[in-house]
Amino acid sequence: MSRKTYSAPAAASTLEVLEFMAANPGARGPSELAKRLGLTPNLTFRVLNVLQEKGYVKRNPAGQYELTSGLFSLGMRLHNNFDLRKQARPHLEALAGECGESCQLQVFEGDHMLQLDFVPPPADYYLAVRPGIRLHLHGNAFGKAVVAFLPAEEIAMFLARPLPRLTPHTIIDPDELRREFEQIRHTRMSSEFDEYVVGSYCIGSPVFDATGRAVAGIGITGLSSRLNRASLPEIQNRVLECAKQISNSIGYKEADGECRGTCA
Question: Where do the domains of the chain lie?
Answer without folding.
Answer: 9-68, 80-249
